[in-house]
Design a protein that fits this description.
The chain is an all-alpha fold. It has one domain (2-283): Up-down Bundle (Rhopdopsin 7-helix transmembrane proteins), CATH 1.20.1070.10. The chain is built from 10 helices and no strands. It has helices spanning 2-45, 50-79, 85-117, 119-124, 130-155, 160-192, 194-198, 201-230, 238-260, 271-283. The radius of gyration is 21 Å and the shape is globular.
């Protein structure tokens, strides 16, 4: 009787795993389409400015997250396990892209915070190549941390999960702290300054992106932080937090679309026109 109950429990877990995996793949496909469209338009069809450079790099990071996770789920369907050299390579790619996305969102929130606190300096004295420099530094840092993780795993100097826990824990705590402070400042400025309300599309985008990051993406950090703090390696909720992270990486193009679309009664516009409408206030 007890053995039968155990088999039923295992079967239930397998069914739940298959459902989560299918749902994750569907979310990843939507994220591929949305972020791929944004990357294409911002790369070749829309004039770039310091803010759209951040958005372009964030979309590339989100595109990498959903692509890597999609193939990780496909490997699970093919082999029945989350293991193997190809899977670990994709896991490293996921970590690079996920970390870069966090850093970019943190830098974007701080940049917006500076722009509303010191608008004259931000407009007149901000270095012209600051966005490109910061984005390049973020990509170098993300790849460097992942490279250290990969090297330590090859030399077996430290367990793979230990290094991963450390990086996710540091990323989660540091980025969440900076994002929270910047978000509170932005919310106060938007709430009490009428001038900010009149030119608030980019601020709305950032606030929504930060909100969805805390709801959907931070649980992955929290999962590894709990493993680091309590010295546990439970895999009960790991599929859920990875699904949540992919959902966060897929939702940003939808934010751009909903914020940039015209009001009712006006003719519908293409995605290119919508993105131009979203980001035109930076040029003004």
């Amino acid at each position: 009787m007890e053995k039968t109950m155990q088999l039923e429990s295992i079967s239930d877990i397998d069914i739940e795993g298959y459902i989560l995996s299918i749902f994750t793949i569907l979310i990843c496909i939507l994220g591929l389409l949305g972020n791929g469209t944004v990357v294409w338009l911002l790369s070749f069809c829309i004039k770039r400015n310091p803010f759209t450079i951040y958005i372009l790099n964030l979309s590339v990071a989100d595109l990498g997250v959903v692509t890597a996770n999609c193939f990780m789920e496909i490997i699970w369907y093919a082999t029945g396990m989350y293991d193997g050299p190809v899977y670990h390579f994709l896991e490293d790619v996921f970590q690079v892209m996920y970390s870069a996305g966090q850093y970019l969102l943190t830098v974007i929130s701080i940049d917006r915070c500076v722009s509303v606190l010191f608008p004259i300096w931000h407009r007149c004295h901000r270095p012209a190549n600051l966005s490109n420099t910061l984005c390049s530094a973020i990509w170098v840092l993300s790849n460097l941390l992942c490279g250290i993780n990969f090297t330590l795993r090859l030399t077996e100097m430290v367990a793979n999960y230990t290094m991963k826990h450390n990086q996710y824990a540091v990323n989660g705590i540091l980025c969440l702290l900076l994002m929270t402070i910047s978000t509170l400042i932005l919310c106060l400025k938007v709430s009490f300054k009428s001038q900010q309300r009149r030119r608030g599309k980019t601020l709305i985008i950032i606030l929504l992106a930060l909100l969805f990051f805390i709801i959907f993406s931070f649980p992955l950090n929290a999962y590894y932080i709990s493993g680091y703090v309590f010295d546990s390696d439970s895999t009960i909720y790991v599929n859920h937090v990875y699904l949540s992270a992919c959902l966060n990486s897929s939702i940003n193009p939808l934010i751009y679309f909903l914020v940039g679309r015209q009001k009712r009664g006006r003719p519908r516009k293409s995605m290119k026109a919508i993105l131009q409408n979203v980001f035109k206030e930076e040029e003004n």
